[in-house]
Please model this.
Amino acid sequence: MSRFVDEIEENLIALLLGLMTIVSFANVVARFGFNSNILWGLEFTLYCFAWLVLLGASYAVKKNAHLGVDLLINFCSEPVRRALGLIAVGCCIVFSFLLLKGAWDYWSIFANLPPTEGRWFPTGFVEKYRGQGWYEVNDIPVPSVLRWMEDVFNDGDEYEKIPRLLPYLVLPLSMALMLYRYCQAAWMIWVGLSDRLIVSHEAEEEVAEARLDREG
Model:
């Protein structure tokens, strides 16, 4: 199951990168070869890049791929390393939770959903709010397959561009994944399967693997 989830995330990230490359290349060809322009190309690649970065950040937490310095913690005993790891991951969990709240409050009104109450931590949902499902992006046209969203989010009125709730969905989604990944990391440290959020000497290991592959 873990490998299956990994493949979904990796393929999605690869798809986003591929779409960015294809649209950017097509726009260059249209501009210099046909003196034309794909009007929605720049905005599309911008949103793809945002999805790539935000989803990639949570995936990097899962794979312990974020940059870190382990010089000091390597001098500590194993119990101290675990304690420091738990403190670090606790701070990351709190920070991710705050980001998730902010991301939900920002995105929810575009999906005609209530934002949360409370300045720092949610204490409930706002009862009276103004839904903004009618907000659109600037340039990306609506494909026919998404016309059903007009009845659900726009009171039946026609969208000219895709609704803003779609590209902005990555905000709560990525922050929820980030929070989940840090909770996983905390559990790994708590049960003794790890003592830090980063891979120890990851650069040295990558160099060693590259050398073995070349020699093999």
Remarks:
- Residues 14 and 52 are 9 Å apart (CA to CA).
- Helices lie at 2-34, 41-62, 78-108, 149-153, 165-168, 170-190, 202-215.
